[in-house]
Amino acid sequence: MSEVNLVAADHWSIGEAAQVCYDLTTLAYPTGAPWQLATFQTDLTAAHTNYVFAVIADNIVGFVSYTTLFDEAEVTNVAVHPDFQRRGIATRLLQHVFQMLTLPAKIFLEVRQSNLAAQQLYQRCGFTTMTVRKGYYQATGEDALIMRKMIE
């Protein structure tokens, strides 16, 4: 596999970055994109929100988005193109988030109860399940697992 470079979102226009995020989540998530294109556009400009893209040979193959506030962070999206999954790219993106935080820090995320592959990824990265939000995903009524990682 070619080298994976991590690049901040400001390398692209808001419109380009939002379209890539929408397209990647549509392909990568079992239930399709969780947000509308306009939501990605708004989120890319929000205070305390960060987007980092995984790039191979000038092609964006994945991204992570997260918000930070004081000693807490929330990972809002992790998506890797299906052709590049299971190659450590999502792990590398999450590790980048961990390195960017002011320590000590608490990191939260939510994941569909049915998304076992993502749960395994997060567990390998040190996340543990805290609680379940019943019926969290409105379109399907599926529960969300709330996971947390503490970094000292």
TrEMBL record:
GO cellular component, one term: cytoplasm
CDD domains: NAT_SF
Top-level class of the enzyme under EC nomenclature: transferase
EC number: 2.3.1.266
Keyword Transferase part of the UniProt annotation: yes
Annotated coiled-coil segments of the chain: none
MF annotations from Gene Ontology: protein-N-terminal-alanine acetyltransferase activity
Main location class: cytoplasm
Source species, domain of life: Bacteria
Ranges for domain N-acetyltransferase: 4-152
Keyword line: Acyltransferase, Cytoplasm, Transferase
Regions crossing the membrane: none
Catalytic reaction(s) noted: N-terminal L-alanyl-[ribosomal protein bS18] + acetyl-CoA = N-terminal N(alpha)-acetyl-L-alanyl-[ribosomal protein bS18] + CoA + H(+)
Subcellular location per the Swiss-Prot or TrEMBL entry: Cytoplasm
Reported function: Acetylates the N-terminal alanine of ribosomal protein bS18.
Protein family membership: Belongs to the acetyltransferase family. RimI subfamily.
Name listed for the protein in its UniProt record: [Ribosomal protein bS18]-alanine N-acetyltransferase
